[in-house]
TrEMBL record:
<feature type="domain" description="3-hydroxyacyl-CoA dehydrogenase C-terminal">
    <location>
        <begin position="502"/>
        <end position="598"/>
    </location>
</feature>
<feature type="domain" description="3-hydroxyacyl-CoA dehydrogenase NAD binding">
    <location>
        <begin position="322"/>
        <end position="499"/>
    </location>
</feature>
<feature type="domain" description="3-hydroxyacyl-CoA dehydrogenase C-terminal">
    <location>
        <begin position="196"/>
        <end position="292"/>
    </location>
</feature>
<dbReference type="InterPro" id="IPR006176">
    <property type="entry name" value="3-OHacyl-CoA_DH_NAD-bd"/>
</dbReference>
<feature type="domain" description="3-hydroxyacyl-CoA dehydrogenase NAD binding">
    <location>
        <begin position="15"/>
        <end position="193"/>
    </location>
</feature>
<dbReference type="InterPro" id="IPR006108">
    <property type="entry name" value="3HC_DH_C"/>
</dbReference>
<keyword id="KW-0560">Oxidoreductase</keyword>
<dbReference type="InterPro" id="IPR013328">
    <property type="entry name" value="6PGD_dom2"/>
</dbReference>
<dbReference type="InterPro" id="IPR036291">
    <property type="entry name" value="NAD(P)-bd_dom_sf"/>
</dbReference>
<dbReference type="Pfam" id="PF02737">
    <property type="entry name" value="3HCDH_N"/>
</dbReference>
<dbReference type="Pfam" id="PF00725">
    <property type="entry name" value="3HCDH"/>
</dbReference>
<comment type="similarity">
    <text>Belongs to the 3-hydroxyacyl-CoA dehydrogenase family.</text>
</comment>
<comment type="pathway">
    <text>Lipid metabolism; butanoate metabolism.</text>
</comment>
<dbReference type="GO" id="GO:0003857">
    <property type="term" value="F:(3S)-3-hydroxyacyl-CoA dehydrogenase (NAD+) activity"/>
</dbReference>
<dbReference type="InterPro" id="IPR008927">
    <property type="entry name" value="6-PGluconate_DH-like_C_sf"/>
</dbReference>
<protein>
    <submittedName>
        <fullName>3-hydroxyacyl-CoA dehydrogenase family protein</fullName>
        <ecNumber>1.1.1.35</ecNumber>
    </submittedName>
</protein>
Length: 601
């Protein structure tokens, strides 16, 4: 029988055992030792413990060089660590943190042995990020003292710690471990027991979709990674991140998630199995989605899949003047981008008044750039002079490139393209900035579908570096070359993708956002905890609910509906909570209320 829990506070964790001294176990050991805890590091062989201690010496020496530790603090921290190959060394520990390989068999064996070694009041924590904490606890002699303590890699740098409780876990154990996390300088997030918990539960579905997108040859690995870094502000692209995590590890996590959810978004992409079984598991082996200088190296080297440097595209068409159709924020931002790059710009809207208003918005934007020292007053004035407002699309008669940025409504866009077909000169390139609608449907509204292409800018266009260049099956090669050349001149990073819903960024971003909404809808975690988990654990610049409120819940719902309609995957069906909020008029920051409430200006 397990020892009964009293209401008395748990004793402080003076001695902590870490079982499993791989990268994560060694990192956790460093965090604990630097925070003044006595640490017993345990692994199966002396070679493993020696390697871990050497890594600890190297990491703390690096911390001294960077001024984060004094030499005395380093000496004291190392003195607090002892290693062993005998699990019996955990006998005096107040807390045991298990970070063995992601295998139920291995972890069960460790927990069974610990039952006969540690004191009745010792808390047992598993560092799993994929397996069921409840299942591990149920087989323990003291299930009420078993919980999950999920650190993120690298443990010394990453602030997030997920504290995972099962239905068997005692609240006092959760409280004690949460307090420890705070004392370690971490930000604990309380979550329930489901595969992947919060951060990995959202992250790995996104990574899996990126792998499937690459496997389908929809876009190159470089373009997928660049799109997510530049389009979403992520520190790493998904394929590079899979190589860092380990392709085999990602596959294990996804298998566990799929076994629980049966959601196709979690069914591991076949390429993950192929790479794993070939031993191409990422950085640690020197090759995964990318090739690396050596096993363990972060330096990517060229391989057979690397795009050739200076690859020649077909000669493009000459572009001297650009027409921008629309009067909203996106249209004025795009017009500003082209004018800054030296192009003569015609900014046309449905009325002269709307066009003038859009130009005045650009003037204010340029003034802010001058105030911030990003451009001179003279350059701002010259930029504004290059923009000619017009109240009719007839003003596009002589432009070389026409870019539409009107409402995200297919019928409206098709009507506009029919008009552009009539007013634009032969040979003019016609581009749509749609983020989710089929480009070919716009092209078919014209008599020259070969001249039509997608140029998906991101908001705010002057600041965001990414443009998704979307070819249809009808787009001419020289039209594609023209737009690629224009992107270079306007200092944007172009990525190529085919004409399917969501292109790269939205096709990967919005299922992730939808899954976050489902977590709240199912009362699994709070808005604040999910946002914190993704910012601290995933390096996201904004949490999913912050981002949804900025994008607009109505816009988000429209994109999710398009993705669901195109791919017909039940997992992409918009979360009912999102639909309810939109129906209630809670659209985010623009209405003062979305997932959160905002002060009205």
């Amino acid at each position: 029988m397990a020892a009964p829990l009293s209401d008395a506070p748990l004793s402080p964790f003076k001695t902590i055992a870490v079982v499993g001294l791989g990268t994560m176990g060694t990192g956790i050991t460093e965090v604990l030792a630097r925070a003044g805890r006595e640490v017993v590091g345990i692994d199966v062989s002396e070679a493993a413990t020696a390697h871990a201690f050497a890594a600890l010496e190297t990491a703390t020496a690096h911390a001294v060089r960077r001024g984060r530790l004094t030499e005395q603090e380093r000496t004291d921290a190392l003195a607090r660590v002892r290693t062993s190959t005998d699990l019996g060394a955990a006998a005096d520990a107040d807390l045991v943190i298990e970070v063995a390989p992601e295998s139920y068999e291995i972890k069960h064996q460790i927990f069974r042995e610990l039952d006969g070694i540690v004191r009745p009041e010792t808390i047992l924590a598993t560092g799993t990020n994929a397996l069921s904490v409840t299942r591990l606890a149920a087989d323990s002699a003291r299930p009420e003292r078993v919980l999950g303590l999920h650190f993120f890699n690298p443990a010394p740098a990453m602030k997030l710690v997920e504290v995972v409780s099962s239905v068997l876990t005692a609240p006092t154990a959760v409280a004690a471990v949460t307090e420890l996390a705070i004392e370690l300088g971490k930000e604990p997030v309380a979550v329930g027991d489901r595969p992947g918990f919060v951060a990995d539960g959202l992250l790995f579905g996104y990574l899996n979709q990126a792998a499937a997108m690459y496997e389908a040859k929809y876009a190159s690995r470089e373009d997928i990674d660049a799109a997510m870094r530049l389009g979403c502000g992520l520190p790493m692209g998904p394929l590079a991140l899979l190589d860092l995590i380990g392709v085999d590890t990602a596959r294990t996590v996804l298998e566990a998630m799929y076994a629980e959810s049966h959601d196709r978004l979690h069914a591991p992409a076949p390429i993950l199995k192929q790479l794993s079984e070939a031993g191409l598991t990422g950085r640690k082996t020197g090759r995964g989605f990318y090739s690396y200088e050596a096993p363990g190296s972060a330096t990517v080297v060229r391989d057979a899949l690397t795009p050739p440097e200076g690859a020649q595209l077909a000669p493009g068409r000459t572009v001297r003047s650009v027409g921008v159709a629309g009067s909203g924020t996106m249209a004025s931002g795009i017009a500003e981008v082209f004018a800054k790059a030296g192009y003569e710009v015609v900014l046309a809207a449905r009325s002269e008044e709307k066009a003038q208003f859009a130009k005045s918005r650009i003037g204010k934007s340029l003034s802010r750039s001058v105030d911030r020292g990003r451009m001179t007053a003279e350059a701002a004035a010259q930029t504004l002079e290059r923009i000619t407002p017009a109240g009719s699309y007839d003003a596009f008669a002589d432009v070389d490139l026409a870019v539409e940025a009107v409402a995200e409504d297919l019928e409206i866009k098709q009507q506009l393209f029919a008009t552009l077909d009539k007013v634009c000169k032969p040979g003019a390139v016609l581009a749509t900035t749609t983020s989710s609608l089929p480009v070919v449907a716009c092209a078919r509204a014209t008599s020259r579908p070969q001249d039509v292409i997608g140029m998906h800018f991101f908001n705010p266009a002057p600041a965001m570096k990414l443009v998704e260049v979307v070819r249809t099956v009808l787009t001419d090669d020289d039209v594609h070359s023209t737009v690629r050349e224009v992107c270079v001149k306007i200092k944007k990073h172009a990525v190529d993708c085919g004409d399917r819903a969501g292109f790269i960024v939205n096709a990967l971003l919005f299922p992730y956002l939808n899954n976050a909404i489902k977590m709240v809808q199912e009362h699994y975690a709070s808005l604040d905890d999910i946002d914190a988990a993704m910012k601290l654990g995933g390096g996201y610049p904004m949490g999913p609910f912050e981002l949804l409120d900025v994008v607009g819940l109505d816009v988000s719902l429209a994109i999710e509906k398009v993705l669901h309609r195109e791919f017909r995957d039940p997992g992409l069906a918009p979360a009912p909570l999102l639909e309810h909020l939109v129906a209630a008029g809670c659209l985010g920051r623009k209405t003062g209320r979305g997932f959160r409430e905002y002060a009205r200006r």
